[in-house]
Amino acid sequence: MSENTCPHIAAVTDVRLPERRECEECVRIGSDWVHLRTCQECGRTLCCDSSPNRHASRHARESGHPVIASAEPGERWLYCSPDDAFAEY
Ligand SMILES: [Zn+2]
Ligand SMILES: [Zn+2]
Ligand SMILES: [Zn+2]
Q1: pTM (2 d.p.)
Q2: Least CB-packed of 24, 29, 65, 88 within 10 Å?
Q3: From ligand 2's centre to the CA of 29, what distance in Å?
Q4: How far does residue 35's CA lie from ligand 1's centre (Å)?
Q5: What is the pLDDT along the chain (89 residues), one digit of tens a residue?
């Protein structure tokens, strides 16, 4: 882990990877997404802040699950929204 981390990111020992390459909420409502993120607390894969519905950030706010991982192939980073902390792994 890099230095700009927080206790939430430091607590992630096994990074959860996406089970499906789609935003489950967007699929449900028939919307589109840009990039995908995976919640490290519950493993849900949701869309990024460049997507119209920003489901990952909404999920973080509503659930209190702080850390997401990029679910994009080749990207290996974690982000904690409450702390605005970022770490590659
Ligand atoms: Zn944090
Ligand atoms: Zn979505
Ligand atoms: Zn979650």
Answers
A1: 0.93
A2: 29
A3: 9
A4: 21
A5: 455 789 999 999 999 999 999 999 999 999 999 999 999 999 999 999 999 999 999 999 999 999 999 999 999 999 999 999 999 99
